[in-house]
Amino acid sequence: MAKYIAEPFKIKMVELIKMTTREERIEKLKAANYNMFALKSDDIYIDLMTDSGTGAMSDAQWAGMMMGDESYAGARGFSKVHNAVEDIFGYKFAQPVHQGRAAEKVLFPSLLKKGQISISNMHFDTTRGHVDLLGAIPVDIVVPEARDTKSYAPFKGNMDTKRMEAYIKKVGAENVALIIMTITNNTAGGQPVSIENMRETRKIADKYGIKVIIDAARYAENAFFIKQREKGYANKSIIEITREMFGYADAFTMSAKKDAIVNMGGLIGVKDDEELFQQVQCLTIPYEGFITYGGLAGRDLEALAIGLYEGTSVDFLRYRIGQVEYLGGLLKEKEVSFQYPVGGHAVFLDAKVILPHIPYHQFPGQALACELYIEAGIRSCDIGSFMMGVDPKTGEQMEAEMEFTRLAIPRRVYTQAHLDIVAEALENVTCNADKVKGYEIIWQPPVLRHFTSKLKPIE
Ligand code: F0G
Question: Which residue has the higher pLDDT, 220 or 400?
Fold first, then answer.
């Protein structure tokens, strides 16, 4: 029996949600052209589209908001964020920005030039986008276990270091400007990266004179997995593990909307390279605003400084990852397929297995998301061929290696009963899986199509 780990908090404020009928949902989904992003949140019962910016802040964070110093320059909140970064990550320099992709936009021009290569365990979409925008080349070298959704491996997010070194030798180290470690590895299913893998990656980077940065959105969840699964770390604190992880990198970009539990915010950290940090500050001013607020209000900085610590609480992380594992446990009992083991922030349903009759060009991940919404008003999202889009050269639909429907769990928002409903809904959907139809696109924009495309079911 799946075990639920009780909330390490009590609830002081609630947000009401609306119940809808199946008939209403069929209509709403049709009106949204079968695109999850076009649904109104008022028509959703349980929203598992993302864990980004959707968490519930604590009373301490809200109190911090009231104390925010809105000074243009030298605001108190900036010093608090700076001190938290020094303490938690062991980095000398911190630059707040408005979210993760802003961190990428500000930092990457100092690290990557046109034609150079960026290697990652897996680039997140916006990270890949910023590498592309600079005319550089993103290359993913994740371990092969990541693609085997059925069998257990403790660190499916790892870089395949052997393949990485062979690749660096093949293309020439002078052409590789950057190694990006995404922790946890979102695209592979929120899978963690081990300390050993980070150490090894650093060793290879040093051998070839390549910089290492961390995409740090889910730093605390990654540290918790290391504490649970890696030999020698069971008795270390999350902050001790975090300092060691970040010790193997030169800088980080962070979407603070995940593990730092704020609704908006991001960070750039630089370990000790003052010249690099000066370049970061220079680009922050035109892109984000003055360096002591970086695109955020003073109150946001307060909430961020507090959230950076709250996210590292072991009691919180045990419950948080426990929730995702609980949902995974229920789905296993009901024989619903997903990337196993579950990630830190989400269950990635294996739509290829659940809807074997729907080919990639009819978007099984999207079809499953639509069905789940109709069944119980649950919003999820496709991480598969629908998101992948068409080949920019040939215009042909590309085939994703994995067809996932992601159930991302917002932090401190839903209860055990909500997760039970999700599992029951999926059981019902899978019982009638053979009746689920594939989809075709009737309109799409030239880039990042999954946000705005219009679809219809294939009759
Ligand atoms: N890096 C990773 C690993 C992410 O998961 C995200 C966002 C970003 C960077 C960009 O951060 O949204 O603050 O600009 N991931 C969200 C998600 C959107 O749903 O997984 P952002």
Answer: 220
One domain, residues 240 and 292: yes
CA of 411 relative to ligand 1 center, distance in Å = 15
- Of 310, 345, 366, the last residue of a domain is 310
Please state the atom number of ligand 1 nearest to the C-alpha of residue 255. Answer: 13
Percent of the chain with pLDDT over 70: 100
**Is the CB of residue 362 below 6 angstroms from any atom belonging to ligand 1?**
no
Task: Kindly give the distance from the C-alpha atom of residue 295 to the centroid of ligand 1, in angstroms, as a whole number.
Answer: 17
- Are both 114 and 170 inside the same structural domain? yes
Beta bridge partners of residue 365, listed in sequence order: none
249: nearest Cα among 281, 203, 305: 203
Burial readout 354-379 (b: 16 or more C-beta within 10 A, e: otherwise)? bbeebebbbbbbbbbbbbbbbbbbbb
Of 267, 292, 310, the domain-final residue: 310
**pLDDT value at position 70?**
98
Do 318 and 289 share a structural domain?
no
Q: Is residue 9 part of a domain?
A: no
* 253 C-beta closer than 6 A to ligand 1: no
Q: How far is CA 95 from CA 77, 160, 296, 329, in A?
A: 12, 31, 11, 40
Structural domain that includes position 235: 59-310
Residue 160 maps to a domain: yes
Closest residue by Cα to atom 18, ligand 1, is: 52
Which atom of ligand 1 sits closest to the CA of residue 53?
13
What residue type is 245 in one-letter code?
A: M
Residue 392 has pLDDT above 80, yes or no: no
**CB-ligand 1 contact for 100 (6 Å cutoff):** yes
Q: Is 410 in the pocket of ligand 1 (CB under 6 A)?
A: no
Please state the pTM of the whole predicted model. 0.97
**CB of residue 98 inside a 6 A radius of ligand 1:** no
Q: How far is the CA of 190 from the centre of ligand 1 (A)?
A: 12
Task: Look at residue 389 in the predicted model and tell me its pLDDT.
Answer: 86
H helix runs in 297-415, sequence order: 298-310, 314-333, 351-354, 364-376, 385-388
